[in-house]
């Protein structure tokens, strides 16, 4: 077999293989300006929040993931994220570490939510004092814990209640906006 004939066979096999599989093709869907505006209107803004140190930024990121897990009523995810949250703290933040450990070790969602409320109360000054850029929101649900009420910190203004999840997703209000 001559060299050019072998090259042609190799090229042919490559082209047949490349053209016959749709698995690796990208779907480049083009949206109209109206579709883009509609999608933007239905999507909450993600705050560009920065903190004075990486530890606080990591803790806030884990806190937000925990809030989402609670909103979704996902006990396993909440416990996993609470464990990650615990790992961000050192001895000087032992109280926050202990509360995160309580959430990671809890055996039901309501215990995680109760520890999340206590964690929020302790962590609020930690997050607000370390905020260097952006906006965070202190939010409140008056019906949490048999109408005792509870707070949480969010990076977006729309309410996503971590204490009731989809049962009362929008229950609550923003009581303070903290910007730097």
Describe the structure.
It is globular and about 35 Å long. It has helices at 3-20, 33-42, 54-71, 75-87, 94-105, 109-130, 144-147, and strands spanning 50-51, 131-133, 135-141, 150-154, 173-179. The strands form 2 sheets. It has a 3-stranded antiparallel β-sheet with strand order 4-3-5, with helices on one face. The protein has 180 residues and is an alpha+beta fold. 54% of the residues lie in helices and 13% in strands. Helix 3 runs antiparallel to helix 4 (75-87). The relative contact order is 0.13. Residues 4-29 and 36-46 have low confidence and may be disordered. It has one domain (50-179). It contains 7 helices and 5 strands; from the N terminus they run ααβααααββαββ.
Q: Given the helix and strand composition, which structural class is it? A: alpha+beta
Q: How much strand?
A: 5-15%
Describe the largest sheet: 3 strands, antiparallel
Model regions low in confidence, pLDDT < 50 over at least 5 residues: 4-29, 36-46
C-alpha end-to-end distance = 73 Å
Shape: globular
Rg calculated over all Cα atoms = 24 Å
Q: How many individual domains?
A: 1
Whole-number average pLDDT?
82
Record the strand order, biggest sheet.
4-3-5
Total helix count? Answer: 7
Jot down its keywords.
two-stranded antiparallel sheet, globular, single chain, 180 residues, 7 helices
What's a concise summary of this model?
The chain is of the alpha+beta class and 180 residues long. It has helices at residues 3-20, 33-42, 54-71, 75-87, 94-105, 109-130, 144-147; strands at residues 50-51, 131-133, 135-141, 150-154, 173-179.
